[in-house]
Amino acid sequence: MFASIRRLQASPAYTQLMGAIKLDLKQAMLAKNKIEKNTIRSVLSSIKNSEIDGGKQTEFDLYKLFTKMVKQRIDSEQLYTSQDRLDLAEVEAQESKIIKKYLESLPVAPETEIAAKAGKWVAELFEKDPNVALKDIMKQVTDELALGWNTFPAAIRATIPQLHKKFAGK
């Protein structure tokens, strides 16, 4: 599929954030901010690789990508700190801060909000049927439910097992 056609399938939030990232790159280049420029280029490269791999172009996919990138930077920062490479650790910390800025600008529900909504939802399911099985709950996690909560199904499914244990153990 051609790149221009794929971009037409992108969500409005995706398109808006891409424009903001490219504008930030231009500003970082004009300001000669090397760390920010390289970080934004890395972000754009990762997004482009995701597009090439045929990934969906939604804010939820960007959320997954940015979360992964932040985690990588934090892990690298801890590794550099443990090896007394504070100069490199500082660069990684600045990069993770820049990526977090984009992560927080996405219109995706944070993990705490997802956990709270999932807790209420699972509690309601247990009120209806105290012996509801975990697999039955997982089957009810649909794309429509996730869109209603402004998240993606995998984020909801990640919280369900511990909630099931909590309510099944009562």
Automatic annotation (TrEMBL):
Localization annotation: Mitochondrion
Protein name (database record): Altered inheritance of mitochondria protein 41
Mitochondrion is among the record's keywords: yes
Similarity comment: Belongs to the AIM41 family.
Coiled coil: none
SUPFAM superfamilies, alphabetized: GatB/YqeY motif
Signal peptide span: none
Gene Ontology annotations for the cellular component aspect, listed alphabetically: mitochondrion
Keywords: Mitochondrion
